[in-house]
Every structure is written in C-alpha cells, then in structure tokens.
Amino acid sequence: MRTYNLAIVGATGVVGQEFIKILQQHRFPVGNLRLFASDRSAGRKLNFNGQEIVVEETTITSFKGADIVLFSAGTEVSTYFSPVAAKAGAVVIDNSAAWRMDETVPLVVPEVNPEDAFKHHGIIANPNCSTIQMVVALYPIHKVNTIKRVVVATYQAVSGTGTAAMEELAAQTRLVLEGRTVVPHVYPHQIAFNLLPEIDVFLDNGYSKEEWKMVEETRKIMHAPHLAISATCVRVPVYIGHSEAIHIELTNRLTADQARQILVAAPGVAVLDDPCVSLYPQPWVAAGQDEVFVGRIREDNSHAHGLVMWVVADNVRKGAALNAVQIAELLVERGAVGSQ
Ligand SMILES: NC(=O)c1ccc[n+]([C@@H]2O[C@H](COP(=O)([O-])OP(=O)(O)OC[C@H]3O[C@@H](n4cnc5c(N)ncnc54)[C@H](OP(=O)(O)O)[C@@H]3O)[C@@H](O)[C@H]2O)c1
Q1: 160 CB less than 6 Å from ligand 1?
Q2: Is 242 a catalytic residue?
Q3: Minimum CA distance residue for ligand 1 atom 30
Q4: What does the pLDDT look like over 194-231, one tens digit per residue?
C-alpha cells in the first residue's frame, strides 16, 4: 500500500495530540512521521502506533521529504513556516487563521466543499472550529432551501484556546471551591463559574474577531458571498465541545420534520432530538466523537421561514484535527498528494 510522509507542527499541543490519535484511529497510511514543536519541547518523546518519536524543534529544513504537513502551532508559526513547507514540495493543511481568507488558499470542510481542496497552491486552510460545525449543519439545508440569514450564539469550550486554558480552568475551579482568590492569566477575567463574551480581539465594528471569522469563513466555504450572518461568541467553563444556538431564515418555509429528515441523511451529522426524553446534544457527550450533533430543531415562532437548532461538536476533533485529517484523506483518495 502507498504510504505518505507526514509532519505535524505543534505536535505537543491540544490539536497536535489529537492529530496523532486520529491518524492512528483512521489507520492513515503513514510512512514516516516527524513531530515538531518549539525548542521548549524538543527532545520530548511521543507515541505513535507503539513507536516512540522524538519531538524536534521546527526549522526551515524540517520539511524535506514530507508529503503532507499538518500545522497547529498558531498563526505566527504558520505564517512563517507554511510557505517554507509548501516550497519544499509538501501539501500544508493549516489549522491557524493565517491563510483562511487568502483568495489563493482553499478553505475546506469535506462535507461541504471537498472540490475546493484540489485547487490549492501548496496550502489548504482548515476553518475556525465554530465555523466548521455550523456549516456542516447548515449546508445540507442550504442546498435545498437557500438560507438568507443566520444569527448564531456560541458557547465555546476552553480547549479551543489550547493547553494553558484547560489548565487554567482546572486550577481556577479548585481555587474558587476552596474560597481562594483567582488571578486570571489566559483570559482577561476568571473563566471558572463564569462566561466571557470575548473570543479573540475586538474589531472596530464591535464584533470580536472570532465572530467575524464565522461571518467571512462561512460565506467562503459555502460559496455564499451575500449570506447575512451575525454571531455572538462566548467562552464557557466547559473543557471540550462547542455548542451553538443557530437561528436561520430560509427562502421558503421548512418544517422541523423536514429539517430533521434532511439532517439525518447529511454527511457528518448525527441528529439527537427528542425533547420528551431530554435527548439533545451536549458537549460532555460530543467530546471524543466525530459527528456534528444537532437537536432542538424547531420552527422559529418569530419568522414565517425561520428555523432554530442547537448544534454541538468536539472542537478539537471536528473543529480542528479531524477536519484536517479528512482533508488529507481526500487528497490521498484521489492520488492528489505525494510526488516526493
Ligand atoms: N484547540 C482548538 O480547538 C483549535 C481549533 C481550531 C484551531 N486551533 C488552532 O490550532 C493551533 C494550536 O492550538 P492548540 O489548541 O493545539 O494550542 P496549544 O495546546 O497551546 O499548543 C500549541 C502548540 O504549538 C507549538 N508551538 C508554539 N510556539 C511554537 C513555535 N515557535 N514553533 C513551533 N511550534 C510552536 C507548541 O509547542 P511547545 O510544546 O514547544 O510549546 C504546541 O505544540 C492554533 O493556531 C489554534 O488557533 C485550535
């Protein structure tokens, strides 16, 4: 069987660790795997398929012979090193925000716009976690009944910020329960037992950058440049799993049952929707799962063509590592990678 040489940049991080897990779970045809991080983690050993791999510092010579490089080490690292990896002949799949809105870089969710993946010039961008789960749920409906407007509120887990934020939530929770003072480090305020309507920096238009990413990225992925979208993104004291209350306005009326039928048949979606027995998606249940879970599907009583739903997914898996590995699998299936 044909194998592919892979490299992961940011291998020691939350997303990097999930990459390693998913490559094993999916039996991705890995030939050689190299793991990269900063000089802080160089020399650490990580396990892949029972084999210990030494983490190396990322340098401009790191990508020689790599077919696919998965980046999840932040925007600065991706901005600098992705073109270096692409120039060395690899296909880069980048998890950061560095290239997402670059017109020459495809922004891909395999359930929505798989064909875009093949239009790359060396770099393919993985969308923002909140955007990925939203478009997986929206697109099957949009295909049969054009969506005109989306209003979404997110409830985003701390794992979306990385390892340090997960540690901060644990430490703060302990301190609060012990009645001790909390000093925030990762977020501007305490996150334990709290909610923060601030994700990424604020823009001049009053939205946060995370909210604006949901607007721009959704339009690009769904090829819907005029889709009206307004988002409010909130960080919540949950470890894993982003939740979203999504209100959509359609061209024509769609009943809740019709929407349910469309979503049951949609790729990557699992419908959990029986309010009578309190069955609906929850982050605790979605953690570790691949699907985008949809429930609480109902017609919007305030709009003739409106629909409301509650959408939950594991932000580290479908929101990051899984989506990137699925893009790599697309390329492999079509023989569109690995000429080295
Ligand atoms: N977490 C999510 O749900 C999620 C979702 C979508 C996208 N992303 C994106 O994925 C990226 C990583 O997120 P994360 O949550 O995994 O963060 P994280 O847990 O903080 O891990 C960051 C990783 O980047 C590495 N790194 C930092 N500086 C580096 C440098 N100068 N050179 C090479 N490697 C460096 C770190 O290595 P050391 O161990 O050496 O520090 C670590 O492996 C970010 O761009 C983030 O926006 C995350």
Answers
A1: yes
A2: yes
A3: 38
A4: 999 999 999 999 999 999 999 999 999 999 999 999 99
* 15 ligand 1 Cβ < 6 A: yes
Distance 13 CA to ligand 1 centre (A): 5
Q: Please report how many Cα atoms fall inside a 13 Å half-sphere around the Cα of residue 316, on the Cβ side.
A: 27
Is position 129 annotated as part of the catalytic site?
yes
b/e burial code for range 26-61 (CB count within 10 A of at least 16 → b):
eebebeebbbbbeeebeeeebebeeeebebbebeee
Average pLDDT over residues 100-104: 98
Whose C-alpha lies nearest to ligand 1, atom 21? Answer: 13
pTM of the model: 0.97
CA 73 to ligand 1: nearest atom: 24
Q: For residue range 293-321, what is the model confidence (pLDDT) as tens digits?
A: 999 999 999 999 999 999 999 999 999 99
